[in-house]
Specification:
The chain is of the alpha/beta class and about 475 residues long. The chain is about 45% helix and about 10% strand. It folds into 3 domains: about 210 residues, D-Maltodextrin-Binding Protein, domain 2, CATH 3.40.190; about 150 residues, Periplasmic binding protein-like II (D-Maltodextrin-Binding Protein, domain 2); about 45 residues. InterPro entries: Bact_solute-bd_prot1, SBP.
Length: about 475
């Protein structure tokens, strides 16, 4: 659940952001992802923005202070974030330790707190988790310096998502555009396939790819969260923003006809064994990272031609030899209804041990300085409007970032991330598990709806 202040207000941005992305992603051919994982921290930020070594935010001296920050980030994403922490250490003299967390992070934090060893700061991927941390009296409000940076650098909408009962607890350090489908350019060329604009176009493209001898999709069924994102894009476009907000707050039931329609639409892809790498059983054993890498390895005969997920896919593409914009291209999630969907997500920095050092770290993460460092490393998107677009390493990311900032306060946040953790953010439970069961048996729409409603009612009723 989330506060009324963070409920999205109109569908205007769905139209605006989709239009911007359509034009932006048409430029993929002139981009190169070869720089995605290089260290650009010494590059100069243009357009009057900060540099990685600039000093646009004032930080206290913290010599001899030790801090811990927890997040579920792994691989290249974790490695890149550690460069941001290294800059904070350089400026303040503090020592920051990154603590790898497990999903659901709220449970991980609960165990740490019970043991008397909470991290100073944690990055929470769900507004519902922030609310839960506040209600458990774990989270601490951010102080005046962090608030000053937040108000200077973020739209009101991004500020509001981090509020609980009117107080600011979260700073959204990272954002995501979760309405993108990435594809193997060689496969599309060989198949004579075109980038689809509508859901029907996507089905046509999928058939063309299949006829060329390549399986159309990798679906990361082993990780429940990509399945929720699939559903949200279909539902937002098909049912519309008002219904989306109602379902996100459980003001309508999952047995609603609009949910039946969305699941039936999803089954047009999930229900075709030949359209999924490994079929339904193989998809359920495919983790997110593998779903990406197997789409961009194997030349023009990969295990799949397309993979759905957000802008952060670029980090995983960077682990292959494929280059974004040439070998790996992208198009906006096609319109299922009258308008293409745009779903956003993100990770918020929340303080769990209130101290001068913890407040300073969150202040730094709210500044353009921190976000600019990670933007230059690729595979990252910031809602901070004062990060220079030139910081992003290729035209694709620059245009996606521009579109996100242009949307201002009007956007739709990931539905499952708004839900109580027990329903929308726990592996093997709730929506994650129910959609995995649906992927296994896409013909049972009514059964999936019944499971989803039962689990949603229990979670929203308890607030957990």
């Amino acid at each position: 659940m989330r506060t009324k202040s963070s409920t999205i207000r109109t569908d205007r941005a769905v139209i605006t952001l989709a239009a911007l992305l359509t034009g932006a992603l048409a430029l993929t051919a002139c981009s190169s992802g070869g720089d995605n994982n290089k260290d650009h921290s010494n590059s100069s930020g243009k357009a009057g923005g900060p540099t990685a070594s600039g000093s646009t935010v004032t930080l206290p001296k913290l010599d001899g202070t030790n801090l811990e920050i927890a997040a579920v980030w792994t691989g290249q994403e974790q490695k890149n974030f550690k460069q941001v922490l290294a800059e904070f250490e350089k400026r303040t003299g503090a020592k920051v330790t990154f603590v790898p967390a497990q999903d659901p992070i709220i449970n991980f934090l609960g165990s740490k707190i019970a043991g008397g060893q909470p991290p100073d700061v944690a990055l929470l991927p769900q507004p519902g988790a922030i609310k839960q941390a506040v209600h458990h009296h774990w989270a601490k409000p951010i102080g005046p310096e962090a608030l000053k940076e937040l108000r200077k650098n973020y739209s009101q909408g991004w500020q509001d998502i981090g509020k609980v009962d009117g107080k600011q607890y979260g700073v959204y350090y990272k954002a995501a555009n979760k309405s993108l489908i990435w594809y193997n350019a060689k496969v599309f060329k060989n198949a004579g396939a075109k980038e689809p604009k509508t859901w029907q176009d996507l089905l046509t493209t999928s058939q063309a790819v299949y006829d060329s001898g390549v399986t159309p999709f990798s679906v990361a069924g082993a990780d429940g969260w990509p399945l929720t994102d699939w559903f949200e894009n279909v539902y937002l476009s098909q049912a519309g923003p008002e219904k989306y907000d109602q379902l996100a707050q459980h003001k309508i039931k999952w047995t609603d006809p609009s949910v039946k329609r969305a699941l039936t639409t999803l089954a047009q892809i999930w229900g075709k064994k030949e359209y999924l790498a490994g079929g339904q059983d193989g998809a359920l054993q495919t983790e997110f990272t593998k779903s990406v890498t197997q789409t961009f390895t194997g030349g023009d005969q990969p295990k799949s031609a397309m993979v759905y997920e957000g802008d952060f896919v670029q980090v995983n593409i960077g682990e292959t030899k494929a280059k974004v914009g040439t070998d790996a291209k992208v198009f906006p999630f096609p319109a299922v209804g009258s308008t293409a969907p745009v779903v956003s997500g993100g990770d918020a920095a929340v303080i769990f041990k209130d101290s001068k050092a913890a407040q300073a770290l969150v202040t730094f993460l709210a500044s353009p300085d921190a976000a600019t460092i990670q933007a230059k490393l690729g595979g990252y998107l910031s809602p901070n409007k004062n990060v220079p677009l030139s910081a992003y390493p290729n035209p694709v990311q620059q245009k996606i970032a521009k579109a996100l900032i242009a949307s201002g306060d009007d956007f739709r946040f990931d539905m499952s991330d708004q839900a109580p953790q027990a329903f929308g953010g726990t592996p093997g439970k709730g929506e994650w598990k129910d959609l995995q069961d649906f992927l296994k048996n896409p013909g049972d729409v009514a059964g999936a709806q019944a499971k989803l409603e039962k689990d949603a009612a229990a979670a929203y009723g308890s607030g957990s």
